[in-house]
Amino acid sequence: MFLAWSEIKKNKLRFLLITSILLLVSFLVFFLSGLANGLASMNREAIDTWKVDAVLLTEESDKSLYESALNKEVAEELNAKETAVVSQMGAIANNGATKQNVMLFGIDREEFIKPEVSEGDPTFYVQNGVVASDVLKDEGFRIGDTLELSSSDTELTIVGFTEKARFNASPILYMKLNDMQKIKYGDAYTMNKDMVNAIVIKDKDWDTLSLPDNTEIIETETFIENLPGYTEQNLTLTYMIYFLFVISAAIVAIFLYVLTVQKISMFGLMKAQGISSAYLARSVIAQTFILALIGVVLAFGLTLLAGSFLPNAVPIMFDIPTMIIYGLVLIVVAILGAVISVWTIIRIDPLEAIGG
Q1: Closest by CA position to 56, among listed 290, 248, 213, 181
Q2: Host H or E run for residue 58
Q3: If you average pLDDT over every residue of the chain, what do you get?
């Protein structure tokens, strides 16, 4: 460690370049992990808030909430501990100044998925009143706003806001099930008033429930993974992070190998003086560890600082345990990148290196 640190202090500029590269790669890894978490959260916020164990859909829907349609009376046949019905439709909401793509969720206010209102009327008994996701406040929506919908002549009124209410990247407007069905089915309301998209279930033994015909029950995580674009988006960002790990190892390997080649005669002289290859190898590993640690720690702080200045519109959410794991992986892959240099040092012949 002494030799490693002494050499770093003696050649500050060289090692500063390596540390800077590691810092930038680490910053990108941490930022992408935050972006992956933020985008995933946008898709699943509402489901996570409900804390449900499973979702009942029709078999024909292929695990898609949008394609499922079943009678709400099915909930009573399940005999699950807790159930809640969900009717859904997408729309463009316009408050006269701003248009926003939203997801309307019709729910029974007596069931457990009723949103906790952070601002406004917690009862939302007003006809066509909606409790909106609080992210809409950033878009200029306010309590009391009258909303026109792209697919209906019915006007809605915002009576409150709730936190963490996004589904498939769209902010949710919660409203009474009957009001929602009238908007969704129009003149066919009477015929379809009992139809909902899904029944969400709170029951740890959900896989033992007896299912009605033509329905299937799926675990919540499976339901989320089947949301349009969710899995593809997560895989893309995850693979980008994995590639950055490889790139990080390659950069460290190239830099250290070049430095090692430049110092072959010096290493040869040291070996001729009796310094073992193992000692020199430990020195290179120690150098790599110090440089990687400094780069990762600086990148960690820089990422959190940069994140605090980003606007709310940027979907970023830092998960500290995940960032720590990624930081440790970056240090490990940097050390792996030093293996080539270690191998080069081991193969140095002292007589040949010093021209004997």
Answers
A1: 213
A2: strand 54-58
A3: 87
Instruction: Indicate whether 141 pLDDT > 90.
Output: yes
User: In the prediction, which pLDDT does 5 show?
Assistant: 67
pLDDT digits (tens, 9 = 90+) for 259-280: 777 777 777 888 788 888 888 8
The pairing of strands 82-94 and 146-149 is antiparallel
Type of residue numbered 312: N
Q: Which of 266, 281, 285 is nearest to 337 (CA)?
A: 285
Q: Whole-angstrom Cα distance, residue 99 to residue 140? A: 10
Q: How far apart are CA 163 and CA 132, in angstroms?
A: 9
Phi, psi of 13 (to 5 degrees): -65, -45
**Per-residue buried b or exposed e for 115-142, using 16+ beta carbons within 10 Å of the residue's own CB:** bebeebeeebeeebbbbbbbbbbeeebe
User: Nearest to residue 307, comparing CAs of 24, 33, 45, 23?
Assistant: 33
Flag whether pLDDT at 356 surpasses 60. no
pLDDT digits (tens, 9 = 90+) for 207-224: 888 888 889 999 999 999
The span from the CA of 233 to the CA of 223, in Å, is: 16
CA 325 to CA 242: how far, in whole Å?
13
Q: What dihedral do alpha carbons 234, 237, 242, 245 form, nearest 10°?
A: -150
Nearest to 55 by CA among 200, 165, 194: 200
